[in-house]
Amino acid sequence: MEALLNHSGKQSSYAIAESSGIAAARRAGNTLARAIGFDEIRAGQLAIVITEAATNILKHANHGDIVLRARAEGNSRGVEVLAIDAGPGMANVNLHMEDGHSTAGSYGVGLGAIRRLSQEFDIHSVEGKGTVLLMVLWDHPSGAPHTPWQLGVVCLPLAGEEACGDAWATAGHESLSVCVADGLGHGPDAAHAADLAVALVPARPELGPGALVALAHDTLRGTRGAALAALRIDPDKQELTFAGVGNIAGCVFNGGAGGGRKHLMSHNGIVGSNLRKVQEFVLPWEPGALVLLHSDGIGTRWDLYAYSGLEFCHPSLIAAVLYRDFARQRDDALILVVRHRGDHP
């Protein structure tokens, strides 16, 4: 199975509440750009995108977050930027995208420049509820290869912690294997357990979800243990196979706007400590479907269809909006969204 969309580094988040936050996010972006091999031109463009997005947050919403993540697809390397705020939002996104439009006493060139410099761009904004922007810059002008899958994630530690006790990984190409882990508690020991579990996905991509959970149970003995969810999506068979232990929540959305929502069922227990039962479940999978997994750092009372048009946005926007509105703020938080494009040959 060809490795694709593999776990490619931790995300980092930068609070934007004053100008120093903008500078910190820009410096982090420069560091990330150098680490993945951006040339000076691409690194400079990334700095502009981060600066403009963070400035818009400060100017229009007073505070928010810039979240950065390294991306890897095939031989391509990129940087994903999420700009998240709960500010006034926009009633007319298209109007705000026009150069020269401003609502804060300055030229409205920010969004237009961001869109032109980004090889991937998406936006979700609701008046009175806030705005989330997605920008991705790749290491060459052609961008990433067109793959069958879109993936979005927010995976961040509890405030004040450097190590995140939640982790994720994917591997595959035509079919896709996904794993999400939540190490017990938080901090370095929780991160160690979660990282050990998800590392099995790229290491053993041939394993089905049930076999992966069983292997993780043996691998995590002597650690804190973890909640674990593993799935494999096979578009040719139109099937999703799932196995879970512990409190990782999951849903499959088939059928477009307002379509069916099916919950993924996990058994009680702790992988690595108290594994009572491993059971695989098979659900239908349609072209264009979404699957969403999240740790208990995200509240469960969200409703994707309560956000107009969000289900059609890039999975990174879906993850960021739900993180913004439902992160519990007292635990590590992970929310991962995968879509099969359906139009891939």
Outline the structure in words.
There is one protein chain. This protein is α+β, with helices and mostly antiparallel strands and about 350 residues long. The protein has helices spanning about 20-35, 40-60, 95, 110-115, 190-200, 200-205, 210-220, 315-325; strands spanning about 10-15, 65-75, 75-85, 120-125, 130-140, 150-155, 165-170, 175-185, 225-235, 240-245, 250-255, 260-265, 270, 275, 280-285, 290-295, 335-340. It folds into two domains: about 10-140, 2-Layer Sandwich (Heat Shock Protein 90), CATH 3.30.565; about 150-340, Phosphatase 2c, domain 1, CATH 3.60.40.10. A five-stranded antiparallel β-sheet has the order 1-2-3-5-4, with helices on both faces. The chain has a five-stranded antiparallel β-sheet with strand order 6-17-16-11-12, covered by helices on one side. Strands 7-8-9-10-15 form a five-stranded antiparallel β-sheet. β9 (about 225-235) and β10 (about 240-245) form a beta hairpin. The radius of gyration is 20 Å and the shape is globular. It starts with 11 loop residues before the first strand and ends in a 5-residue tail after the last strand.
